[in-house]
Amino acid sequence: MEILVVGLGGAIGAILRYSISLIPYKNTFPVLTLITNLLGAILIGSVVGISVKNNWSKNLTLFFKTGVCGGFTTFSTFSLEANNLFQINKPVMAIIYIILSVALCLLGVMFGIFISSKS
Q1: Predicted confidence (pLDDT) at residue 12 exceeds the cutoff of 80
Q2: Contact 36, 19 (CB under 8 A)
Q3: How far is CA 56 from the centre of its chain?
């Protein structure tokens, strides 16, 4: 049952992720992936906080945390896009992207946990 729960959540997350990639954006800097991963970080932090506070079942937590958030966020695309920036001789932009991604997503998780733990 857990595999099905994760798979269903993952499908939903992947569809949401793909939908964001359809937004027209023509720029070298991969802002859509950064936004997606930041939203996913806030979401997973919120899921952790809410699931603990409300004593969610294991399956519900797996559905959202591993499934939806795992399918929605994309570390592999982040890595590929950082590599692509290096390949097109934009090392400063690549380093900024890497630092922003890691810092903002970590802060996003912390923010999600913080806001979901209130009251």
Answers
A1: yes
A2: no
A3: 21
The domain segmentation of the chain, as residue ranges, is: 2-117
Spatial distance between the Cα atoms of 81 and 71, rounded to a whole number of angstroms: 18
| Cβ atoms within 10 Å, residue 73 | 22
Q: Is the Cβ–Cβ distance between 46 and 112 less than 8 Å?
A: yes
Residue 15 near residue 32 (C-beta atoms within 8 A): no
pLDDT at 21 > cutoff 70: yes
Helix/strand/coil (H/E/C) assignment for every residue in 22-63: CCCCCCCCCHHHHHHHHHHHHHHHHHHHHHHHCCCCHHHHHH
- CA 115/CA 37 separation, integer angstroms: 18
